[in-house]
Amino acid sequence: MSDKAYAVTPEWAGRAWIDDAKYQALYERSISDPEGFWGETGRRLDWIRPYTKVKDTTFGPGEVSIKWFEDGTLNVAANCIDRHLATKGDQVAIIWEGDDPSKDETITYSQLHERVCKFANVLKAHGVKKGDRVTIYLPMIPEAAYAMLACARIGAVHSIVFAGFSPDSLAGRIDDADSHFVITADEGLRGGKTVPLKKNTDEALERCTKGGGKVLVVRRTGNPVPFKDGRDLWLHDELAKVDADCPPVEVGAEDPLFILYTSGSTGKPKGVLHTTGGYLLYASITHQYVFDYHDGDIYWCTADVGWVTGHSYIVYGPLANGGTTLMFEGVPTYPSPSRFWDVVDKWSVNVFYTAPTAIRSLMGAGDDHVTKSSRASLRLLGSVGEPINPEAWEWYHRVVGEDRCPIVDTWWQTETGGILITPLPGAIAQKPGSATLPFFGVRPQLVDDKGTPLEGAAQGNLVLLDSWPGQARTLYGDHDRFVQTYFSTYPGTYFTGDGCRRDEDGYYWITGRVDDVINVSGHRMGTAEVESALVTHPKVSEAAVVGYPHDLKGQGIYCYVTLNTGEEPSDDLKKELVKHVRHEIGPIASPDIVQFAPGLPKTRSGKIMRRILRKIAEDEFSALGDTSTLADPSVVDDLISNRQNRK
Ligand code: WT7
């Protein structure tokens, strides 16, 4: 191995589903005979009508069409619940750990079945049908999982909006999905603070121009909230009116399961659409092999169901595998920075999956918070969302995992549905900071900016040469944008938007986005979205937003703002602009740095040269490159001399 590596131990090679020999053989088979490989693995699901076709995919040039198991039918809820009832009815499916450490609940597969059926009957009673889009704006409470599975049970398509998004962001997503049913809660509770979800929903619905309809409200905190008769429904009232008999609907493998909005480099968020059969198969097989999940294991992914990680690795993957999945309502630092490890000990968690930003912040809080817990149950650790710096990786390994637990650094995206590049704990030696090698069926390639493939050790843009079953099929209502965004940069391939290095051992090291998407604490944010929010402020004339390295968040949001003539820059105005962006998009889009700029570096044709703004934000003043093509090269000196201190 060319770098420091952590070898697979004999114990792991012995216990894991996949050892080195199996990885080699199965990977080779999955690439040389995808039809055969996926045709066989597809049988891990229960099909109502078994498929006869396996793969029908093309990445263009020209038409882009992705179909897997096209003529098969199934039901996702039946696969995640009903088929486990005979053997695991009394096994815990979901452990819920509340924000307040004294609040928790365990839900067995039988209970999950009953609750999901009743929830689905409530949806049906209010006219929700197969194919209808249902917007879910909920905190991390069991009802979020019931709502997802209830939609799946009746063939409705869920669109979850992260509960940290603003009313405006929620309204945009309700309208874009043309959704006429919203599920929310009175309030959310995180770190002891309430989040006004019902109030936000009311505001959103006032702004909707297309979507809207009924609002189903879960009582979470019990604090009084405004209620609109005829439109708003309390879940507990509705549940009292329905029975628990709800047969799962037969759904085509290529019928939609969910839409999830994510940020792109331009324009408004994109409604990434995932379908039923291939997605569930991919979530389930990756959950089993990457986390080496065995019956009886307690598995905890700390993500929120508002992101794809929560979809695939809190709900669908673990439940399809008949597992026990822990759902956490709170935050890593409440009531203290020991919370994660207290929860690990409380429930004897075996597999723990979190994000680098959380690891870095807990690392900063000091080892004592970790070492005072036992963590004896932990066997495997995972990381996702952004590149993990080797220092944080080593700390996670040594302090949290006591040098005993392999770390799976899993690279994937909302669009990929499941993990694509990752170590398998019994098969692949880990190198801190590398996502290592592709999962079965995944064909990564590095290309230069012209699209020429790079061989051997190299650095370039990461593309994927062929489809895998979990891949997104389209952007809701905008297939052209799907083709344009992912398949036109390097025709005939799926472009990930990530830069990547491959070392001499063939290991992949993701270096971060190469487009105008920034990754803030593992959450994607389009610079264009933040810019649009800034320019809606009455004092702002123009804005340009870039990412810069941030110790805790990975990347921070750096905003260059030009004010309207006559407006005075001030610290108060900076604060006001930060507040404005939070209000427009949500707290995750909070600018870290605002710099007032009398002029932005533009080409003579008026295009903002972001490369220069990025370099200034990164403090790389010597690497600005050629500035002579700028319409007014002197703006650069001003930008440098007014460079704001990093936080
Ligand atoms: C982007 C996708 C996939 C769930 C969470 C984020 C970055 C994700 C890693 C990793 C390096 C990573 C990439 C990717 N990313 N995981 N293990 N190492 N980078 O999903 O919001 O769709 O963001 O997150 O840049 O493109 P997402």
Automatic annotation (TrEMBL):
Modification sites for N6-acetyllysine: K607
Amino-acid positions noted as binding Mg(2+) in the UniProt annotation, renumbered to this chain: V535, H537, V540
Reactions it catalyzes: acetate + ATP + CoA = acetyl-CoA + AMP + diphosphate
EC numbers for this chain: 6.2.1.1
Annotated positions binding CoA: R190, G191, G192, K193, T309, S521, R582
Family annotation (PROSITE patterns): AMP_BINDING
Entry keyword annotation includes Ribosomal protein: no
Domain Acetyl-coenzyme A synthetase N-terminal: 23-80
One Pfam family here: AMP-binding_C
Post-translational modification: Acetylated. Deacetylation by the SIR2-homolog deacetylase activates the enzyme.
Molecular function terms from GO: acetate-CoA ligase activity; AMP binding; ATP binding; metal ion binding
Binding site for ATP: G385, E386, P387, D409, T410, W411, W412, Q413, T414, D498, R513, R524
EC primary class: ligase
GO terms under cellular component: cytosol
GO biological process: acetyl-CoA biosynthetic process from acetate
Residues in AMP-binding enzyme C-terminal domain copies: 529-607
Chain segments annotated as transmembrane: none
Keyword set includes Ubl conjugation: no
Family: Belongs to the ATP-dependent AMP-binding enzyme family.
Functional description taken from the UniProt entry: Catalyzes the conversion of acetate into acetyl-CoA (AcCoA), an essential intermediate at the junction of anabolic and catabolic pathways. AcsA undergoes a two-step reaction. In the first half reaction, AcsA combines acetate with ATP to form acetyl-adenylate (AcAMP) intermediate. In the second half reaction, it can then transfer the acetyl group from AcAMP to the sulfhydryl group of CoA, forming the product AcCoA.
Name of this chain's protein: Acetyl-coenzyme A synthetase
Species this protein is from: Hyphomicrobium nitrativorans NL23
Source lineage: Bacteria, Pseudomonadati, Pseudomonadota, Alphaproteobacteria, Hyphomicrobiales
